[in-house]
Amino acid sequence: MLKLVVVNLFRNPLRTVLTMASVTVALFLFCALGGILDTLQDSIKVGSESRLVVRNKISLVQWLPMAYRQRIEAVPGVKRVALQNWFGGQDPADPKGFFAQFAVDDPYYVVYGPDIDIVQASDAVAPAAVPEGADPKLAAYYAEQTACVIGEKLMAKKGWKLGQTITIAGTIFPGSWPFTIRAVYRAKKKSFGDETMFFHYKYLNEKGLGGFGAVGTYVLELNEPSQASSIIHAIDSQFENAAPATLTETEQAFTAGFVSMYGNVPFVLRVIGLAIVFSILLIAANTMMTSIRERTGEYGVLKTLGFTDGAVFAMVVTEAAVITLGGGLLGALGAKLVVEGASFPGGFFPAMSIYWGTVLTGIAIAVVIGAVSGLVPAVQASRLRIVDALRRVE
Amino acid sequence: MATVDVRDVVKVYRRQTEEVRVLDSLSLKIPDGAFVALMGPSGSGKTTLLNLIGGVDQPTSGDVSVDGTNIARMGGSALARWRSSSIGYIFQLYNLIPVLTAQENVELPLLLVSMSGSERKKRAKTALELVGLGDRVGHYPRQLSGGQEQRVAIARAIVSDPKVLLADEPTGDLDRKSAEEVLQLLERLNREFKKTIVMVTHDPHAAERATTRYHLDKGVLSN
Fold first, then answer.
1. What was the pLDDT predicted at A243?
2. Fewer CB within 10 Å: N-end or C-end of chain B?
């Protein structure tokens, strides 16, 4: 019986291949769109529950004074304070190839030490003080104000080499900014991403902020993560009546809030994904019905030979399922292979991920498409009266 | 004992509001091992009667027994199983599956019984040899002549060794030489293998080969 299904699949190979290809493309898109949602979800996981982020209460784009640092450090339970500022520059050689750049201070590499490995580093030409807890390989970086640390994927993408001097054009901080690549990092957690550039805050402060000391966000390492809520309360109440007031939250909540800036985009993506799947369902159903209609006489013959209605039903549904499941597997697994690891559109978030759950959902959808698209023609074929079917042949 | 026993069969088709009485209280007994020809003008009900005997269609009223089994009220699945083991059907236009080889076409009825693949192949080859096509097992229908296609169809009809063969104008689409070969084959199946054959035909020459001839007109049977 399976042989008959296989033979029927190859009866019109072009039609089978095109139908399978349409399901493949649909499921590829569905999983790729799902991958964007997964990546947004992943980016939330970048954040740690044991780290806190302090930002301006009004908005993320508003500064905090450098003077807050000491007062935050003095809050009981705060082990270490680092700071980071969004730079927002462009590579003049590739202005559309966006990637994230952050100006960070020295303790930053101690706070984020558990999340990254330094895989390449220049030798230090002059002795430099490496903060305790930071990777000693960063010595050359610490010794040079214009040095930077870059993710290895971004290095590969841009074709940059260790020791190379690159120039970034500032958008928020206008001007031409030369940097020397002194270290390359690899993220230990995929969600951290390998496509970000870090450089010295003091470089930004002197050249871009005129020594004003404005800070984008403070990142706090805690002695005891379980004390997070009391520390949050202590910091925010300390600056409650100050200008500006602060908003402190766990790093995970901070990144989740950042993701929420995408607003209804995830919803729109879901709707687009479902619309694609639904349109393919109609195409697959139409193809199956055409295919079955062409074979009405043959089903009449098979029934005359003794094939039951159930056997005919099973053959048609199986045929539809093989086409859609084949296409679904190709599309969903293809998306996992091709899209995963690619840069997220916009460059801020970590590299694209597609969860296995999304792949399995895609495959399950392919099975449902197969069942639904095969159902109507299968019912028609199984209910077909032999005399009516044979009349169409004669 | 009659192999085929048709009793007071009425068959009415409904076309929208119109009722067409195709068979009208028809009775017919066909003894075991007979070779019967059913003749009559188009629309006289020949194929309908053949379909009722073959369990392909069911009567509006009356009974149809084949080899002691009353199939007039049998359910769909049971009827399908009965057809697979009890009836061999030969169509005017052969109705082979174009994407299957001669051997695979002949194997089709055997897919419905529990049998190993090698046994299925062996039986199909035997059936094809019986109809003189042992050297055409791997040919597709498009690679065969009309007469050869019909002989493959006959091999398919006899492969599960049914007692009754039903042939609906088996020579209607063939040239004289091929028609003669098919008729000789049917005669042989009747004589040597004791198959009961009911053949619908318009061709008096073909009907002469049968041992019994019936004439059907407006749903009424006469000798």
1. 86
2. C
* pLDDT, tens digit, 9 for 90 and up, residues A313-333: 998 888 888 888 899 999 999
Q: What share of chain B is helix, strand, coil (3-state, %, to 5)?
A: 35, 30, 35
**A376 to A23, A282, A293, A316, A317: CA distances (angstroms):** 18, 11, 11, 10, 9
Interface of B with A (CB under 8 A): 51, 54, 56-57, 76-77, 80-85, 89, 91-93, 95, 97, 99-100, 104, 108-109, 111-112, 156
Give the closest-approach CA distance of A1 to chain B in angstroms.
7
| Percent of chain A whose predicted confidence (pLDDT) is above 70 | 94
Q: What is the pLDDT of residue B88?
A: 94
Tokens of A230: 């009391």
A10 vs B84: CB contact, 8 Å cut-off? no
| Average pLDDT score over chain A | 87
Mean pLDDT of B116-136: 93
Q: Are B62 and B97 in contact (CB under 8 A)?
A: no
Give me the half-sphere count of Cα atoms (radius 13 Å) on the Cβ side of residue A47.
Answer: 20
* Cβ-based neighbour number of residue A143 at 10 Å: 17
Nearest CB to A387 within list B51, B76, B80 = B51
CA dist list (Å): A356 to A41, B169, B173: 14, 60, 59
| Nearest-angstrom CA–CA distance, A263 and A244 | 26
pTM over cut 0.80: no
CA distances in angstroms from A338 to A6, A188, A218, A276, listed in the order given = 29, 22, 36, 19
A67: confidence class by pLDDT, cuts 50, 70, 90 = very high
**pLDDT at A348 (0 to 100):** 55
| Alpha carbons A223 and A210: distance in angstroms, whole number | 34
Tell me whether A14 touches chain B (CB under 8 Å): no
Q: Does A303 touch chain B (CB under 8 A)?
A: yes
DSSP letter, residue B175: -
Q: A71 and A238 in contact (C-beta within 8 Å)? A: yes
Picking from A63, A28, A54, the residue whose alpha carbon sits closest to that of residue A214 is: A63
Contact A1 B83 (CB under 8 A): no
Which residue matches tokens 């993220």? A187
Pairing of strands A147-151, A196-200: antiparallel
Bridge partner residues of A177 (DSSP): A168
* Residue A318 near residue A373, CB atoms below 8 Å: no
Give the separation between CA A32 and CA A354, rounded to whole angstroms.
Answer: 7
Q: How many CB atoms lie within 10 A of CB B131?
A: 25
pLDDT for B1 equals 60
Q: pLDDT tens-digit profile of A146-173? A: 999 999 999 999 999 999 999 999 999 9
pLDDT on residue A349 = 62
State the nearest Cα–Cα gap between A338 and chain B, in angstroms. Answer: 37
Considering only CA atoms, which of A110, A33, A53 is closest in space to residue A256?
A: A53
